[in-house]
Specification:
Number of helices of chain C: 16
Order of helices and strands of chain A: HHHEEEHEEEEEEEH
Number of strands of chain C: 0
Largest interface: A-C, 101 and 94 residues
CATH superfamily of the largest domain in chain A: Cupredoxins -  blue copper proteins
Strand content of chain C: under 5%
Radius of gyration of chain A: 25 Å
Oligomer: heterotrimer
CATH architecture of the largest domain in chain A: Sandwich
Helix content of chain C: 55-70%
Low-confidence stretches of chain A: 5-19, 264-280
Number of helices of chain A: 5
Largest sheet of chain C: none
Strand order of the largest sheet of chain A: 3-2-1-5-8
Mean pLDDT of chain A: 89
Strand content of chain A: 15-25%
Chains: A alpha+beta (280), B mainly alpha (37), C mainly alpha (533)
Distance between the termini of chain C: 34 Å
Distance between the termini of chain A: 45 Å
Structural class of chain A: alpha+beta
Mean pLDDT of chain C: 95
CATH class of the largest domain in chain A: Mainly Beta
């Protein structure tokens, strides 16, 4: 009980950081666009709250005041052109006020010109494939082993003991901080969707088609997301992890991926792909 | 029914028009999709 | 002419058939209405049981009860059953019972087609539910049936398609019947503009049904041919486009959600004036608002597809058009409030549900405005925020509308007052638990929880736990509703008068309670007090 309460307080305090229990809001994220999206979301939310206060206030007032038990006689009016015009015009104005910043942000989101880095993301049932065109680096990204063992019915493992349960992969996507990363998205089988909340990015991965979107992360760190389009039995088990690193570290990452792997004696590390090779 | 001030012809006409709209939408969407595909 | 009438009188009124024939071969709108309503109640519990399975699994992280494949079948079937088996048939049942009574007609225009419309449904759902027992299980690709995923359905696939075709046929025939009845069989004094709002709402809903159910039928026919007859409507490898399915589906799907809510609007417009003892505010505007909503519902479908990769212009258009729907919807909310204003309200159970509708549907409307904003929707789409939004408009929206209607008209149907005390208990339990269940889902979506997953990351535990508790409470509370209704049907309770309530308007209150098997054998003269404009 105490634990619940204190978690509740910390959760509320961390409302902007969506990784806490009892989180109630989306993250502000680590890109300019994610912050713009968050601000837009909050603006619309506050408008709704304001309208709710007025409308629910009126409803509550009338439910208390205009009741038969108070001995009132019901009024007879059933028309008022001025009232109707007012409550048609005012919502239109409010909607216009919301529509302008929404359109501006949307136009910015759709502008994927002049990227610094491009990655090609392919959805599979049930994992992601990442490829850096022109860099000769490509690999699969699957649910991390600890999660994958715990998630089965009767596994006997408590998810609370698994770090980043269902949000961890064996090989994350690595991108440089501050770079405009263009994401080309497709699928090998059914429709998937690539969603990373802190980068405010979500786009469908559709077989036979190439979708395009972009993000620019301004803070280094590890950002986690999940597939966001029902894609079969293991839809819940193909998370996305994006590691945003300093540009030098990104180059180092690419170089290490490009080198042919030394012959591995144990051969048990499934992440030891040769570039471009298919793995299961 | 005694309060049957409808004319059978008008009922039939209305019903058939509506059924025709339904059929038109059904076939129309399939045909449009075939052209699109 | 009068001899013919006298002869008909002599043959008439041997009462309803005896036994199973009365129901199997029913052509009486009251009997058919009753069957629709009872069928929908059963389906509510079937869909509800599936929801209980879903919420049991989601109560804690980790998989405890079901495998992911079965879980996906549950989410898919829960939606199909609730939409096509519970909500829509309930409203059609209300239409069958009330439209002839409200317009002064002796029955529906096409009574035998009416019978077929109903009996198709038990057959369709037997087929659909039987797929759960087939090899490969029932459909598990979501009620939205997107290809290519839906084409991975096993043996159940053709049965899914067939049952959807059957449900569509039932709805289309029902809609034709409703329009023809309203247009052709109104009492001579009742001009269209003078009709009650429930009838208006159904007139418009019926047009929506006729326009879009065939589109759904077309979409699933194309799924069928892609699967079995070598076409490539939606298969990229053959030159087709999976996204085209989404466009076609949602061209049906968006008007569909208005089909599910407009009759609820109609019910609320009947209930609030009665219990406020005041005429509906702005009757004509209410008619225009419903018409505007219906028209707009055709041009916003792609707001279900904002992450699909649509050109910017498309996204902007659909964003603006979607936001626009808030205007006529707001007008309705304000007009209902203005109806209450200055009234002399009492709060019997139908009014409680109507008022809860007003509050909670509005909350669903607010989250609707939020999801209309495309940049924000990129974060909300396919998350629990959307699940919260549509459950708010469907449960305290459509379902509360149905519950209000049942409590409102049950005394007319059965001749007995339901137990008011129990009704109030049912109301409060339902209203409280519905919020405990669905409000936390807003938070889950914002925190990043996707839809349609049987298991989740541990930071989503607390709200999921709360939602599950709420769901169990909500489900159990509906058992009380079934008890109240069945008790009433069995003749327990105070005898009801013709008027039942305090001077309600409408022709249905001019006939005795229970309404006789045949009503308005003669067209009524509609007194000015009974008209609505």
């Amino acid at each position: 009980m105490i634990r619940r309460l204190s978690l509740c307080v910390t959760g509320l305090a961390q409302a902007a950081g969506a990784r806490a229990d009892w989180a109630i809001n989306m993250p502000r994220g680590v890109s300019e666009l994610s912050a713009e999206t968050y601000d837009l979301h909050m603006m619309v939310f506050y408008w709704c709250v304001g309208i709710a206060v007025v409308v629910f206030g009126a409803m509550l007032f009338t439910m208390v005041r205009h009741r038969k038990s108070r001995g009132v006689q019901p009024a007879k009016f059933s028309h008022s052109m001025p009232a109707e015009i007012t409550w048609t015009i005012i919502p239109i104005i409010i909607l216009l006020i919301m529509a302008v910043p929404a359109a501006e942000t949307l136009i910015r989101i759709e502008d994927s010109r002049a990227p610094d880095v491009t990655v090609v993301v392919t959805g599979y049932q049930w994992k992601w494939h990442y490829m850096y065109p022109g860099e000769d680096v490509a690999f699969y990204s699957t649910l991390a082993r600890a999660s994958s063992e715990a998630r089965h019915r009767g596994s006997g493992i408590d998810p609370a003991n698994v770090e980043n349960y269902l949000l961890d992969v064996d090989r994350p996507l690595v991108v440089p901080k501050g770079a405009k990363v263009r994401v080309l998205l497709t699928s090998n089988d059914v429709i998937h969707a690539w969603w990373v909340p802190e980068l405010s990015i979500k786009k469908d991965a559709i077989p036979g088609f190439m979708n395009e979107t972009w993000f620019q992360a301004d803070v280094a760190g590890v950002y986690r997301g999940q597939c966001a389009e029902l894609c079969g039995v293991d839809h819940a088990y193909m998370p996305i992890v994006v590691e945003v690193v300093e540009p030098e570290a990104f180059q180092a990452f690419l170089d290490s991926e490009r080198e042919p792997e030394p012959a591995a004696a144990s051969g048990s590390n499934t992440s030891a792909d040769s570039p471009g090779e298919d793995t299961k | 029914m005694k309060n049957d001030h409808r004319s059978p012809r008008s009922v039939r006409t209305t019903a058939l028009w509506l059924a025709a709209i339904a059929v038109a939408f059904y076939l129309g969407f399939i045909l449009l999709s075939a052209i699109r595909a | 002419m009068s001899t013919a009438v006298a002869e008909m009188e002599a043959h008439d009124h041997h009462g309803p058939e005896k036994g199973i024939r009365r129901w199997l071969f029913a052509t009486n709108h009251k009997d058919i209405g009753t069957m629709y309503l009872l069928f929908s109640l059963v389906m509510l519990f079937v869909g509800g049981a599936m929801a209980m399975i879903i919420r049991s699994e989601l109560m804690m992280p980790g998989l405890q009860f079901v495998n992911p494949g079965f879980y996906n079948q549950m989410t898919t079937m829960h939606a199909l059953v609730m939409i096509f088996g519970a909500i829509m048939p309930a409203f059609v049942g209300l239409a069958n019972w009330m439209i002839p009574l409200m317009v002064g007609a002796p029955d529906m225009a096409l009574p035998r087609m009416n019978n077929l419309s109903f009996w198709i449904l038990p057959a369709a759902f037997t087929i659909l539910l039987s797929t759960l027992f087939m090899s490969g299980g029932g459909p598990a690709g979501g009620w939205t049936m997107y290809p290519p995923l839906v084409l991975q359905t096993g043996d159940a696939f053709p049965y899914l398609i067939f049952s959807i075709h059957l449900m569509g046929l039932s709805s289309i025939m029902g809609a034709i019947n409703i329009i023809v009845t309203i247009i052709n069989m109104r009492a001579p004094d009742m001009a269209l503009i003078k009709m009650p709002m429930f009838v208006w709402s159904w007139l418009i809903t019926a047009y929506l049904l006729i326009a879009v159910m065939p589109v759904l039928a077309g979409a699933v026919t194309m799924l069928l041919t892609d699967q079995f007859f070598g076409t490539s409507f939606f298969l990229a490898a053959g030159g087709g486009d999976p996204v085209m399915f989404q466009h076609i589906f949602w061209f049906f799907g968006h008007p569909e959600v208005y089909i599910m809510i407009l009759p609820a609007f109609g019910v609320v417009s009947e209930v609030i004036p009665t219990f406020a003892r005041k005429p509906l505010f702005g009757h004509d505007s209410m008619v225009y608002a419903i018409s505007a909503i219906a028209f707009l519902s055709f041009i916003v479908w792609a707001h279900h597809m904002f992450t699909v990769g649509m050109p910017l212009t498309g996204q902007l258009f659909f964003m603006f058009a979607t936001m626009l729907i808030a205007v006529p919807t707001g007008v309705k909310i304000f007009n209902w409030t203005a109806t209450m204003w200055g009234g002399a309200m009492t709060f019997e159970t139908p009014m409680l549900f109507a008022l809860a509708f007003l509050f909670l549907f509005t909350i669903g409307g607010f989250s609707g405005v939020m999801v209309a904003i495309v940049p924000a929707d990129i974060q909300y789409h396919d998350s629990y925020f959307v699940v919260a939004h549509f459950h708010y408009v469907l449960v305290p929206g459509a379902l509360f509308g149905i519950l209000a209607a049942v409590y409102y008209w049950l005394p007319k149907w059965t001749g007995r007052m339901y137990n008011e005390k129990l009704g109030q208990i049912h109301f409060w339990l339902t209203a409280i638990f519905v919020n405990v269940t669905f409000f936390p889902m807003h938070f889950l979506g914002l925190a990043g929880m996707p839809r349609r997953i049987p298991d989740y990351a541990t930071q989503f535990t607390d709200w999921n736990f709360m939602a599950s508790i709420g769901a169990f409470g909500f489900g159990l509370s509906q058992l009380l509703f079934a008890y109240i209704v069945i008790n009433c049907m069995r003749g327990r309770g105070e005898a009801a008068t013709a008027e039942v309530w305090d001077h309600p308007k409408g022709l249905e209150w001019t006939v005795p309670s229970p309404a006789p098997y045949h009503t308005f054998d003669e067209p009524p003269r509609v007194p000015p007090a009974q008209t609505f404009s």
